[in-house]
Amino acid sequence: MPELPEMETYRRLLAEQLVGRTLADVYIGREKSLNVPPEPFTRRVRGRTVNSIRRRAKHLIFDLDSGDHLLLHLMLGGWMFWGSEADRPERTIQVRLDTREGSLYFIGLRLGYLHLLDASALEERLQPLGPEPLQPAMSLEQWMNRMAGKRGRLKSQLVDQQVIAGIGNCYADEICYDAGIRPSRTCPSLVRQDWERLYASVQRVLLAAVRYGGYMEHPLYTGDRLTGGFDERCQVYDREGEPCARCGTAIMKESLSGRKLFYCPECQR
User: Fold this and answer.
1) Catalytic residue chosen out of the listed positions 6, 48, 55, 58
2) I want to staple 229 with a disulfide (CB 3.0 to 4.6 A). Which of 46, 114, 157, 213 is the partner?
3) CATH number assigned to the domain with residue range 4-126, chosen from the 4 options 3.30.43.10, 3.20.190.10, 1.20.1050.10, 3.40.220.10
4) Mean pLDDT throughout 60-73?
5) Which numeric CATH code is attached to 140-263?
6) Which among 12, 21, 110, 259 is annotated as catalytic?
């Protein structure tokens, strides 16, 4: 599932392609990907200009000049492609937004969605989300206030979007590896020094992942050489059986509350 670095990469690249352009037409291949029927969705979106594209946690927000907003969550298996009909992947398209310069294709939105919301509805939808981990307001003390008093397992808290927004399965494991702490540790067992190391690792891992384009395997457009560049830099996630880059011990995979969990049994004691 795309996480903060993947959606931030999409935001930056799409802003160059789509902001300031008018949505000339809309194609809807799967009504369940929307929150309103196709006819009013098309009527409110067609002819509108994309004023800006924002990210909040794992969502993208397309701000239209009408005051409406398109809220995107790709969920598991969702991705996008920008280009022409001749260039697009041979995949089923759930939604397509057309401009004179190109089209934005939404692919794999079986669990994901593209919802049309006014300002108040958008605010209500996003209200439960916790703070962004890379914002200046997320100081060490703010991090400690939100995390250190929690119960349960560390990974479960890292991926809880109401605690900290934007971290998912992949980056929770990468952050714990970087900090040298096993993600299955209980939060009450961690001391302040552990939380300080985790805070530093959150900044280090997420900033690096954004810099290298996240781990998404599909390029956003033909010639896109940024998207997915962090995949080869993942140290533990989806690396079961591979040698740890630090000590050579085989990376292990376990299950925690239905989630995959990857770690080095030697470096993360």
Assistant:
1) 58
2) 213
3) 3.20.190.10
4) 98
5) 1.10.8.50
6) 259
Q: Distance (Å, rounded) from C-alpha 267 to C-alpha 82?
A: 41
Residues 6+ apart with CB under 8 A from 124: none
pLDDT at residue 261, as a whole number? 95
CA count, 13 A, side-chain hemisphere, 255: 2
Is-catalytic flag, 265? no
Active-site residue flag, 2? yes
CA angle 48, 53, 55 (to 5 degrees): 140
Q: Is the pLDDT of residue 148 over 90?
A: no
* pTM higher than the cut 0.85: yes
Question: Is residue 196 annotated as a catalytic residue, yes or no?
Answer: no
Domain boundaries, the chain: 4-126, 140-263
* Amino acid letter, 267: C
